[in-house]
Design brief:
mainly alpha, two-stranded antiparallel sheet
């Protein structure tokens, strides 16, 4: 038996367990890329509009930080500037989470020990996970090439752009292979990998902000920090602007280095252990932990803190960018029309601020799904069974989890509104007034988030085994319908399926109370269905 014995069979097992998740990933990425490319082509239909966009993007430090450097005024380069960072972050996180799920999580739950009792080599589980994730990235990149070419973009540039996105996934596959050896829990491995993704984003943003603009003001050459970031490498490919194909080799080099390091680290640790020893807790629990509410806060405070930091930074940046918004819109009526479709109203700055608050609400919806799905993780890990063996009822336990997720959503929404208003107020001279106004406007998005929590609760109660996949799928559908549906001119009947569609876009439009009351009623009904179903089914399921 060699160290790789059983790799092929374990790869088939990974494919069997993640067949739905992988299908959504491989098909969803090109579909999202096609939709975004079509939307950008509609917003910037002619050379004058694209030239104005390129000039504004090259001169705006905020646009450089969040979208990356503009490579030229061609349509393909504008599409890359508008879509690359979004797609790259998606594949980076999907790659790291999938590797941790099939390596560290298997050791954490004891599946790896069970598999190890059969004829399986020491490196086979890690190798099988890496092969599947790399193959998923390659296949998604191939389909993304077809999607971009199908949207009317040149084939060579489409290959380069899709390769850049797939390369990010390949690079972070190697990163996840290493973090899976360091932490003793899958949550810790994911957190370490996510921290590397965040550091890569910061390095890329710093390099792009410090970069130099070309003489005609429509092209940016990044500074050296971008070359330290796997996310920055994708921009350096310069798709649709004289492609630099050799840059696509950098993610492969990082993958090979990561795999070699992961193999070496695996030799130096025991099965189920990590190289970073977990911190020992106190001998006795504090009084505040001896209740479902205290336990829920203890388990979610780290995640909530990480989200709060990200929301605060983004909110402040989006608020400051509002001051540059008028200059950008003055040069592009089509962009003004798109922002109006997303934010509503006639005042373009208010429409922009409303659109940003809407994006925050969608993003915080991911936090709600993540927080609520802990109930399924606790059930699968056996923690729930132990909790219910005490004097805690099922209704009280699940209700506490819902309350914790809702309070976290309130805190993040309020923080998003306050920081966005603070950033906007600092450049307009009224930071306190703007922060209060946008903080209140952000809280109006809460009923939509309660509907998201209700959907997850209902799925957990009715279909616990499918609740993870279906919950994330529901949020993705809400994203496409609620935020991009208006830009893509989808039918109103389809848009109405998203709870975000019914939230009044304050401050761009006047407040309407009835839709918020209806959303709250829908959320209460979904929560009641979920709790009732949970009370009448087996645990664990």
């Amino acid at each position: 038996m060699t160290a790789l014995t059983g790799t092929r069979r374990l790869a088939r097992l990974v494919l069997r367990r993640d067949r739905i998740r992988l299908a959504l990933w491989v098909l969803g990425t090109p579909l999202l890329g096609y939709a975004l490319a079509g939307s950008v082509a509609g917003v910037y239909p002619d050379e004058a509009a694209r030239h104005g966009y390129a000039a504004t993007s090259a001169s705006s430090l905020v646009a450089r930080a969040f979208n990356g450097p503009i490579a030229s005024a061609d349509l393909g380069a504008v599409v890359v500037a508008e879509t690359y960072v979004t797609l790259a972050l998606i594949v980076a996180l999907l790659s790291t989470f999938t590797v941790a799920r099939h390596t560290r999580q298997n050791e954490e739950t004891g599946r790896a020990e069970l598999l190890g009792a059969s004829v399986v080599g020491r490196y086979a589980p890690l190798t099988a996970a890496l092969l599947v994730v790399v193959a998923a990235n390659v296949l998604a990149a191939a389909l993304l090439t077809l999607a971009l070419a199908g949207a009317g973009l040149p084939l060579a540039g489409s290959v380069a752009a899709a390769g850049a996105v797939g390369g990010v996934g390949v690079a972070f596959t190697g990163v996840a292979a290493v973090t899976a050896q360091l932490s003793v829990t899958s949550r810790g491995a994911n957190a370490l990998a996510a921290a590397v993704v965040g550091l890569s984003f910061v390095l890329r943003a710093a390099g792009d902000v410090l970069g130099d603009s070309s003489a005609d003001g429509t092209r940016v050459e990044s500074a050296w920090p971008s070359w330290l970031s796997p996310l920055g490498w994708g921009n350096q490919v310069r798709a649709f602007a004289g492609e630099r194909w050799w840059v696509l080799a950098l993610p492969v080099v990082l993958l090979l280095a990561g795999v070699a390091l992961a193999y070496a680290l695996a030799e130096r640790r025991d099965q189920g252990a990590g190289l970073v020893a977990p911190r020992r807790g106190p001998a006795t629990a504090a009084a505040r932990l001896l209740s479902p509410a205290g336990l829920a806060w203890r388990m979610q405070r780290g995640t909530l803190l990480g989200w709060a930091v990200g929301v605060a930074v983004l909110g402040l940046s989006m608020g400051v960018a509002a001051d540059e918004f008028n200059a950008m819109i003055d040069q592009n009526p089509a962009a003004a029309e798109a922002i109006n479709a997303m934010g509503g109203g006639t005042d373009l700055v208010d429409a922009y601020l409303a659109a940003m608050l809407g994006l925050f609400a969608l993003t915080i919806g991911a936090y709600v799904v993540q927080a609520m799905l802990r109930v399924r993780g606790d059930e699968a890990d056996g923690v729930l069974e132990a909790a219910l063996a005490t004097a805690v009822s099922r209704t009280r336990w699940l209700g506490t989890q819902v309350l914790a997720a809702a309070l976290g959503a309130v805190a993040l929404l309020l923080l998003a509104g306050l920081t966005t208003g603070l950033g906007y107020g600092l450049v307009t001279g009224d930071p306190l007034g703007a922060a209060i106004e946008l903080g209140g406007a952000a809280l109006l998005r809460l009923p939509a988030l309660l509907v998201v929590a209700g959907v997850v609760t209902a799925l957990f109660g009715l279909l616990p085994r499918r609740s993870v996949v279906l919950s994330w799928t529901a949020l993705l559908v809400f994203l496409l319908l609620g935020q991009l549906g208006a830009v893509l001119e989808l039918p109103q009947a389809a848009l109405n399926l998203s709870p975000y569609t019914h939230v009044p876009s304050v401050p761009a439009v006047d407040l309407a109370v009835l839709p918020l009351v209806v959303l709250a009623g829908v959320a209460a009904a979904l929560l009641a269905v979920g709790v009732a179903a949970f009370r009448h089914r087996d645990v664990p399921s």
